[in-house]
Structure formats: structure tokens, C-alpha cells
Design brief:
There is one protein chain. This protein folds into two domains: about 60 residues, Arc Repressor Mutant, subunit A; about 35 residues, no CATH class. The protein starts with 7 loop residues before the first helix and ends with a helix. A hairpin with a 2-residue loop joins strand 2 and strand 3. A three-stranded antiparallel beta sheet has the order 1-3-2. By secondary structure, the chain is mostly helical. The longest helix is centred in the last third of the chain and has 18 residues. It contains six helices and three strands, in the order αβααββααα. Helices cover about 60% and strands about 10% of the residues. GO terms for molecular function: DNA binding. Keywords: DNA-binding, Transcription, Transcription regulation. One of its GO terms (biological process) is negative regulation of DNA-templated transcription. Belongs to the BlaI transcriptional regulatory family.
Length: about 130
């Protein structure tokens, strides 16, 4: 089953959950910078929708609030985003890599890591 698509806000909420583990809606909302903090009800509605999608789960009730935890891994969510990005570029990684290099967002260390991964992949295929 493919991982559900996450909106920008949902991904930001997931980042909080991946970093903190079990977290209340209030704690999630307060983790946003004050100037860009969404309303409590916005976070609440989004978390409930994420629960319906199967990306977060309620783990326990404490007093009058619930604690939520991530149900999907960061790797799974990142794979989904990368697949979507590649789809925009016709499934070809070369234009993405070229843009990253030209924009200076890919460091020499990143290139060396990519070369290392390619060598490992090549060795597996032999």
C-alpha cells in the first residue's frame, strides 16, 4: 500500500512527532515559531485527518487530551516525496540532480556520498 500524501502542514507536524515521540496537539501547536504558529483548531483538525489517513495514531489519553505518535517512518514519508518529485520530472533523476548542482544545494560531500552509493549499487549488480 502506498504511503499517503502529506501536505506541508502535515509534514511539519510529522517532524514534531518524529523528534518528540508521543505528543499532545497543544505541544505540537506550540512547537511552531510564534510568528507562523497555526491556530490550535487547525492543528487539531489536521492531526485528526492524519489519524484517518493512518499516518499518526492516538497512543493514550492523559486527563482530557490525547497523545499522538507517528505511525509512518520519516524514511517512508521522504521516499513518497522523492517519488512525487521524480514524477514531476518525468521519472528522470538527472534534471533534479542538475538543478541541485547548479543551484549550489549539493555540496562536494553530497556528491562523494552519491558516488559511494552508486559504487555499492554497482557492486551488488555484479
Amino acid at each position: 500500500m502506498p504511503e499517503p500524501k502529506l501536505s506541508k502542514l502535515e509534514f511539519q507536524i510529522m517532524e514534531v512527532l518524529w523528534a518528540r515521540g508521543e505528543t499532545s496537539i497543544r505541544e505540537i501547536q506550540e512547537s511552531f515559531p510564534a510568528r507562523k504558529r497555526p491556530a490550535y483548531t487547525t492543528v487539531q483538525t489536521t492531526v485528526y485527518r492524519m489519524e484517518t489517513k493512518g499516518v499518526v495514531r492516538r497512543v493514550k489519553k492523559v486527563g482530557n487530551f490525547h497523545l499522538f505518535a507517528p505511525y509512518i517512518s520519516r524514511d517512508a514519508a521522504q521516499r513518497r516525496l522523492i517519488d512525487e518529485l521524480l514524477m514531476i520530472f518525468g521519472g528522470r533523476p538527472q534534471p533534479v540532480m542538475a538543478h541541485l548542482i547548479e543551484s549550489g544545494k549539493l555540496s562536494l560531500e553530497d556528491v562523494k556520498e552519491a558516488e559511494k552509493a552508486l559504487k555499492q549499487l554497482s557492486a551488488k549488480e555484479k
